[in-house]
Write a structure and sequence with these properties.
The chain is an alpha+beta fold. It contains 27 helices and 21 strands. Strands 2-1-3-4-5 form a 5-stranded mixed beta sheet, sandwiched between helices. A 4-stranded mixed beta sheet has the order 12-16-17-18. A 3-stranded antiparallel beta sheet has the order 13-14-15. Helix 21 crosses helix 23 and helix 22 packs across helix 23.
Length: 697
C-alpha cells in the first residue's frame, strides 16, 4: 500500500485512499515551529510547510477549500497547552469539516504521544486522512497506516527527550565547572570575560554589607526594611538589558529583594545551580516557570563553595538561614512588641504543639494558651495560663545566666552603636561624593559643548541644574540627619553604662529597655520551654531547654479561677475551719494563714477577711445558707441575693455586681427594714451557663 502511494506521488496522481467524500470537505495545512529563533533563523523549514498548499492542490483540493493553520508558530509541540492552532485543528476534525490534514512531518503536529494518539483517534472516527510529503495515511481504514503513524509519534517524542537530555547534560557539565552563565544579583557584575566580581562601585558594596549588618542586629527583614526606609537608603541595581544595560540604578528597598539577598548563597562566595527546582505537581499548565520550590541548598544540583568573591562568610550565611526559618509563623516567629516575654518559645507539655500569646485588658495583660487543636478540630482548649508568673520566673533565670558576662555585654553594645553610626556616616559620605561627582561631570559636559550648538547646550544646562538641585537636597537631608540622630555617648555616659551593667535587674526593668530587647535576650539563651499545668491546679511544671543542650526543671504558681482549683484546697479548708473553731474571727484567721505561708487563688498575695468568709461558707454550705438567707424577704421563683449566688457560683460578689450593671443578670431592688436588698433572677439554665462561661483568670 505504501509503494502504491509513493508511486502515485511520483506520477503526480492522487492516491486511491482519497475519495470524493474527502474532497467534499476541507484540506488543512498545519504549520508549527518550536521557537521564535527557529522562525527567524530557519526560514527554509517555514517555506517547506507553506508549500504543502501545493501538495493539497495536487491531491485534488481546490485552493478555496484549503485552510492554513499557522497560529502555533513559535510554540513547542511538547504539550497541547497554549497551542491554539492545534486545538482549532482538533475542533474542526471533530465537527467533521476536515477531509485531509497535511504536515511536513509528524513531529510538527505533536511531540507527545498522548496528544498525537488523541488526534489519530478523532481522525479515525470522522474518516479524516493524514498526509505528509511522502504519503497519505488512513488512520481509520488501514491498520498498517495507523501502526506506522504511532511508530513515528513514538520516535518524535523520543527525539525530543533525547535532545532535552543532551542539552541538560551539557548545561549540568558547564554548571559543575561553575561556568554556566546566569544573571548576577545586586552587588555583583559580570565582566566581558565571564568572570563574576564584586560591583566596582564602592557605595554599592557598602550598601550590601550594611544590609547584612542590619539583619544581624535586628533579626527580621521588616525591621531592616524600616531602617533603610527611615534613613533614605536605596539599593544598587544594574539594569539587565535595554538601552541602559549595565548602568547602576538606585531603587527603593523592598521586602522581596531583601529576602532574595539574604537567601542567595552567592553572597557567601558559593556558586549554586538548581537552587529552586520545579515541582511538577504545582506547575500550572501553559506556565513553564511556575511551581518553583522555595530556595533550599538541599535541592541544589550543584554547590561550589568558595568559588566567587563573598560579602559574608559561610557560617554567617547559615546563621541567617536558620534565623529566617525560625522567624516563620509555624516556628518561633520573630520578636514582637507585645508584653508577653516568651512569645514563640512555649511548647505545650501535653500535645507538643506551640503555644500562642493572647492579650486582654487593652493589650496590657498577656496569656499563653494552646489553642491549635481547638481552632483546627474544635477540640477543648488544651491548657492556658496567665503570662505574668512565668515571665517573672524566666526573667530571673535569664538574669542569673547573664550576670557573669554583664560587663562584656555592655562593652559590645557600645561597640555596636559606634559601628552603626560609622556605617551610616560612610553611607552619607558616599552619597554626597557621588552627588558632587555628578555635578562636576555635568559641568564638564556643559563646558565641552560648542556655544553655538544651543540645542545641546540647553539640555546639558538643564542636566547640570538638576545635578546641583540633587546635591543641595542631599546636603539638606544630611544636615537634618545629623541634627536628629542621637548624640554619641560621652566618656562619662560610657562609664555610667558600665556601672549600670553591674546591676542587671535595674537595667532589665528600666523604662528605656523595650520589651523587644528583653525578648531578644531571652531567645539568645533559651531554645524552647515545655509547659505543663498539673491536674488543672495552680502548679505549673516548667522544663527549660537552653541553647547548647542544657535542660532545667522549675515550678511556678499561677492564679486560678477559684480556691477549689488549688492543689492545697482541702488542707486550706481544714486549717480555716480549725482556726474558726478555736474562736478566731475572719480577719484574725486571714492574718494567721498569711503568716503560715498559705496563698489565695487569685492574683493577690495575701488572704483577706472576705476570702476567709467564703472558705468557711464552702466548708459548711448549709450553715452559710442559713446565715445568708433573709427569711423576711418575699421572693419570686429562682431569685437569689448577691451573697447567696456568689457562694453558689464561687465567684466574687464584685463580679456579680458587674454582671448586673452590664445587664448580664436580671435583678430588682427590694426595700427592707434594715437596708435595700438586691435580688437576682437566676434559674437552673442561667446558673449552668454562668458556670460554663466563667473561664479561668
Amino acid at each position: 500500500m505504501m509503494s502504491e502511494d509513493c508511486a502515485s506521488v511520483r506520477q503526480g496522481l492522487p492516491p486511491d485512499k482519497i475519495r470524493s467524500r474527502h474532497h467534499e470537505r476541507l484540506a488543512v495545512v498545519y504549520i508549527r515551529q518550536s521557537t521564535p529563533q527557529q522562525i527567524e533563523r530557519h526560514q527554509e523549514s517555514t517555506r517547506l510547510q507553506y508549500a504543502l498548499v501545493e501538495r493539497a492542490v495536487h491531491l485534488g483540493w481546490p485552493r478555496e477549500r484549503i485552510v492554513v493553520i499557522d497560529d502555533d508558530l513559535g510554540r513547542s509541540g511538547k504539550t497541547v497547552e497554549g497551542r491554539i492552532g492545534f486545538q482549532r485543528l482538533v475542533a474542526e476534525v471533530s465537527l467533521g469539516n476536515v477531509g485531509l490534514v497535511l504536515g511536513i512531518e509528524m513531529s510538527r503536529l505533536a511531540r507527545s504521544c498522548r496528544d498525537w494518539h488523541q488526534l489519530l483517534e478523532i481522525c479515525a472516527v470522522f474518516d479524516t486522512l493524514i498526509a505528509d510529503p511522502e504519503a497519505v495515511y488512513d488512520p481509520g481504514g488501514c491498520y498498517n497506516d495507523r501502526l506506522l503513524l504511532g511508530l513515528k509519534a513514538t520516535m518524535s517524542e523520543a527525539e525530543l527527550h533525547i535532545l532535552e537530555a543532551r542539552m541538560l547534560e551539557a548545561r549540568m557539565a558547564k554548571a559543575r565547572r561553575g561556568e554556566l552563565g546566569k544573571l548576577v544579583p545586586m552587588g555583583y557584575v559580570r565582566r566581558p570575560s565571564g568572570e563574576i566580581v564584586l560591583d566596582p562601585d564602592e557605595q554599592a558594596q557598602t550598601t550590601i554589607r550594611l544590609v547584612f549588618d542590619l539583619y544581624d542586629r535586628f533579626g527580621t527583614i521588616g525591621k531592616v526594611l524600616r531602617h533603610l526606609t527611615d534613613h533614605g537608603i536605596r539599593m544598587p541595581v544594574r539594569a539587565p538589558g535595554g538601552e541602559n544595560k549595565g548602568e547602576l540604578d538606585w531603587r527603593r528597598p523592598n521586602r522581596p529583594s531583601l529576602y532574595g539577598l539574604l537567601v542567595n548563597p552567592i553572597y557567601a562566595g558559593s556558586y549554586v545551580y538548581g537552587l529552586r527546582p520545579t515541582d511538577r505537581r504545582r506547575q500550572k499548565p501553559g506556565h513553564p516557570r511556575t511551581g518553583r520550590k522555595a530556595p533550599n541548598l538541599d535541592n541544589a544540583a550543584v554547590v561550589l563553595p568558595d568559588h566567587l568573591p563573598a560579602y559574608i562568610s559561610w557560617d554567617r550565611y547559615q546563621a541567617n538561614q536558620e534565623r529566617l526559618r525560625s522567624n516563620a509563623a509555624r516556628m518561633r516567629g520573630p520578636v514582637r512588641a507585645g508584653s508577653a516575654l516568651l512569645s514563640g518559645l512555649l511548647i505545650c507539655g501535653r500535645c507538643g504543639l506551640r503555644m500562642t500569646s493572647a492579650y486582654n485588658n487593652n493589650g496590657h495583660t498577656a496569656r499563653y494558651l494552646c489553642g491549635t487543636m481547638k481552632s483546627v478540630y474544635d477540640a477543648p482548649l488544651c491548657q492556658s495560663l496567665t503570662a505574668a508568673p512565668l515571665d517573672a520566673l524566666m526573667a530571673q533565670l535569664v538574669l542569673e545566666a547573664v550576670r557573669p558576662a554583664a560587663l562584656e555585654v555592655s562593652l559590645a553594645v557600645a561597640t555596636d552603636l559606634e559601628a552603626e553610626r560609622a556605617a551610616l556616616e560612610r553611607h552619607w559620605a558616599q552619597r554626597l561624593e557621588r552627588a558632587r561627582y555628578e555635578v562636576e561631570r555635568a559641568r564638564r559636559q556643559y563646558n565641552a559643548v560648542e556655544p553655538e550648538n544651543r540645542l545641546v547646550a540647553r539640555t546639558l544646562e538643564r542636566a547640570w541644574e538638576e545635578a546641583l538641585a540633587e546635591q543641595v537636597r542631599l546636603e539638606a537631608d544630611y544636615d537634618r540627619h545629623r541634627r536628629e540622630r542621637p548624640a554619641a555617648p560621652s566618656p562619662e555616659e560610657l562609664r555610667a553604662i558600665r556601672a549600670m551593667a553591674q546591676d542587671l535587674p535595674a537595667l532589665w526593668s528600666a523604662e528605656t529597655t523595650t520589651q523587644e530587647e528583653r525578648q531578644t535576650i531571652v531567645r539568645l539563651l533559651v531554645e524552647h520551654i515545655l509547659v505543663d499545668i498539673i491536674d488543672g491546679s495552680e502548679q505549673v511544671r516548667i522544663e527549660c531547654h537552653w541553647q547548647g543542650g542544657v535542660r532545667t526543671e522549675h515550678r511556678v504558681i499561677r492564679p486560678v479561677a477559684n480556691a477549689k482549683a488549688l492543689s492545697t484546697y482541702d488542707a486550706l479548708v481544714a486549717r480555716t475551719s480549725e482556726l474558726r473553731r478555736a474562736g478566731h474571727d475572719c480577719v484574725e484567721i486571714a492574718d494567721i494563714l498569711n503568716r503560715e505561708g498559705w496563698r489565695p487563688a487569685k492574683r493577690c498575695d495575701a488572704f483577706s477577711g472576705s476570702m476567709v468568709r467564703h472558705l468557711l461558707y464552702a466548708a459548711d454550705p448549709e450553715a452559710a445558707a442559713r446565715r445568708l438567707r433573709c427569711p423576711k424577704i418575699e421572693r419570686e421563683p429562682d431569685e437569689w441575693t448577691i451573697p447567696e449566688l456568689s457562694m453558689r457560683l464561687g465567684v466574687p460578689e464584685a463580679t456579680l455586681y458587674g454582671w448586673v450593671r452590664k445587664g448580664r443578670l436580671r435583678s430588682r431592688s427590694l426595700a427592707t427594714a434594715t437596708s435595700p436588698r438586691r435580688l437576682v433572677h437566676a434559674d437552673a439554665a442561667t446558673i449552668a451557663a454562668l458556670e460554663a462561661n466563667h473561664g479561668p483568670p
